[in-house]
Amino acid sequence: MPTIYEWEVVLPPDVTPPDTTITRGPPPITASFINWLEMTGTDDQTHELEMEFECRLDNGPWESCDPLEEIEVLTRGPHRIEVRAMDETGNVDPTPAFRNFTLIDLSVPDTSIDSGPNSETNETSATFT
Predict the structure, then answer these.
(1) Measured on CA atoms in the order 58, 91, 66, 40, is the torsion positive or negative?
(2) Do the strands 63-65 and 97-103 form a parallel or antiparallel pair, or are they unpaired?
(3) What pLDDT is recorded for position 84?
(4) Residue 87: CA atoms inside 13 Å, Cβ hemisphere, count?
């Protein structure tokens, strides 16, 4: 009959913060108000599936986010999304991953003429509003 021997591995206290990587995010220039952000983290003691993440947009507050997160930005211009991983013991990545992008307007402007000269005229100049 085989002999059973059991043991427990006790790891040292986890004081090493994780590292965060953005694997998919908005392109540098986009016309889309909704983009996907995908991230991962690596750590010396916490498996990547056990990692938690926080995101913030344009230096706003840090908020909990999922490893695949939909981000909605409604204002045109430059933006910055930051992501940081947190391991099981609460160590937070001190150097968050980030992505800078610019939201541009590709919509066609709506133009109309409210008033102008008569369709037939002898005038050589016209005013339009």
Answers:
(1) positive
(2) unpaired
(3) 97
(4) 17
The residues, ordered by sequence, that sit 6+ positions from 102 with a Cβ below 8 Å of its Cβ are 28, 29, 30, 77, 78, 79
What pTM was computed for the model? 0.74
Q: Which amino acid is at 48?
A: E
For the segment 57-102, what is each residue's pLDDT rounded down to a tens digit? 999 999 999 999 999 998 999 999 999 999 999 999 999 999 999 9
Tell me whether strands 19-24 and 34-42 are parallel, antiparallel or unpaired: antiparallel
Which pairs from 105-112 meet CB under 8 Å and 24+ separation? 105/31, 105/76, 106/31
Report the Cα–Cα distance between both ends of the chain, in Å, rounded: 99
CA–CA distance, 99 with 119 (Å, rounded to integer): 54
Identify the bridge partners of residue 92 per DSSP, sorted by sequence position.
86
- Segment (H or E) for 19: strand 19-24
